[in-house]
Design brief:
The protein is of the alpha/beta class. The strands form three sheets. The chain has a nine-stranded mixed beta sheet with strand order 7-8-6-5-4-3-2-1-9, sandwiched between helices. Helix 2 packs parallel to helix 4. The longest helix has 18 residues. The structure holds iron/sulfur cluster. Iron/sulfur cluster binds next to loops.
Length: 384
């Protein structure tokens, strides 16, 4: 279970409303010309297919924004065109992110017929007041109805919850988690609430409307979460993601294993290894400018930078140490183009191992649970 895979990410930048915690590239528009958007996404896909001939796709991910607001015809056209441009791995995973409103649930059958075989639902909470606080458009009953419908319609599904909310106690979170686990199957994502720059929540915290949980309380909730999920048979294969064996998100594993992926649509990122070199790509972020550029040039690439070896090493570690499986030592040597002893500063590494944050074994470098909880600080110390 460690081939990095080759993925395709498709960004749909529109939502019905902007959630106050969200810093994704998502926008609210009264009217969307779906025909124009479909044609432009297809053109940008063709552009990147010309850069990466002869490779087999292991996953496609429709993210956003709210891709369940796309017309199923657009999703079908993109999957069909990807199938014409690339080989598909036999077990290709094709995921669509969805919000649990009735309109979107009503399209599940059409999305399945389009080729979607996994959905990831943005449930976020099962508590009415907290859904309101998070600015969500659905209630808990709708969310659970959507989860049931996802289970009936698609082979695989996941849903997200956000915890460590401002006034949440351990007992409240445990009760909510127990309820969620009655509905979970192979995969669930559990994110701690973070306050991102430029969001409505950032302003609310600055005004003093609420305070985030302190680090100690948040750590207590995290540890209880990992323990409860393990008891339910879902391993913490990544910091915020839990799965039964074999049910991990293959697309996200490609990111975390530092594999290659094409990113199309406004603001989408990509990583492409071409020969011995790796490139970081990013598409124009503003939806209307992206659309105009694709119609004019066939793509709206804003950035296409060579990733230097030192950055390849730090990106590999930044992504890979989020995973419980860690990073193969051979990959460290490959990305850094240096033997291990030169790629990583040995005294820094030793100190982090002795401190209980990192571990070496089985030809891998892994972060311990303690290390994964403080990964930014661990990486800063390792790569200093
Ligand atoms: S629905 Fe998702 S992408 Fe859209 S604003 Fe809310 S959190 Fe952001």
């Amino acid at each position: 279970m460690s081939a990095p895979g080759f993925g395709l990410y498709i960004h749909w930048p529109f939502c019905k409303a902007k959630c106050p915690y969200c810093d994704f590239n998502s926008h609210v528009r009264e009217r969307i010309d779906h025909t124009r958007w479909r044609a432009a996404l297809l053109r940008e896909l063709e552009h990147y297919a010309r850069e990466t001939p002869g490779r087999a796709l292991t996953s496609i991910f429709f993210g956003g924004g709210t891709p369940s607001l796309m017309e199923p015809e657009t999703v079908a056209a993109l999957i069909a065109r990807a199938g014409a441009l690339f080989d598909f791995a036999p077990d290709i995973e094709i995921t669509l992110e969805a919000n649990p409103t009735s309109v979107e649930i009503g399209k599940f059958g059409a999305f399945r017929d389009a080729g979607i075989n996994r959905v990831s639902l943005g449930v976020q909470s099962l508590v009415a007041g907290d859904l309101k606080f998070l600015g969500r458009q659905h209630d808990a009953a709708q969310a659970l109805a959507a989860v049931r419908m996802a289970a009936e319609t698609f082979g695989r599904f996941s849903f997200d919850l956000i915890y460590a909310r401002p006034t949440q106690t351990l007992a409240q979170w445990q009760a909510e988690l127990d309820r969620a686990l009655e509905f979970a199957a192979g995969h669930i994502s559990l994110y701690q609430l973070t306050i991102e720059p430029g969001t409505q929540f950032e302003q609310a915290v600055a005004r003093g409307d609420f305070r985030v949980l302190d680090e100690e309380r948040a750590a207590e909730l995290y540890e209880a979460t990992v323990a409860r999920l393990a008891q339910a048979g879902l391993a913490d294969y990544e910091i915020s993601n839990f799965a039964r064996p074999g049910q991990e998100s293959r697309h996200n594993l490609t990111y975390w294993r530092y594999g290659d992926y094409i990113g199309i649509g406004p603001g989408a990122h990509g990583r492409l290894t071409l020969g011995a070199e790796k490139f970081a790509t990013r598409q124009h972020r503003a939806p209307e400018a992206w659309l105009d550029l694709v119609e004019r040039d066939g793509h709206a690439t804003r950035q296409r930078d060579l990733v230097p070896r030192a950055e390849r090493l730090s990106e590999l570690l930044m992504m890979g140490l989020r995973l419980k499986e860690g990073v193969q030592l051979a990959r460290i040597e490959d990305e850094a183009a240096k033997p291990l002893a030169q790629a990583l500063d040995q005294p820094h590494l030793q100190r982090l191992i002795e401190g209980g944050f990192l571990a070496l074994g089985d030809n891998r470098l892994t972060a311990t649970q303690q290390g994964r909880q403080r990964l930014d600080a661990v990486l800063a110390a390792l790569l200093a």
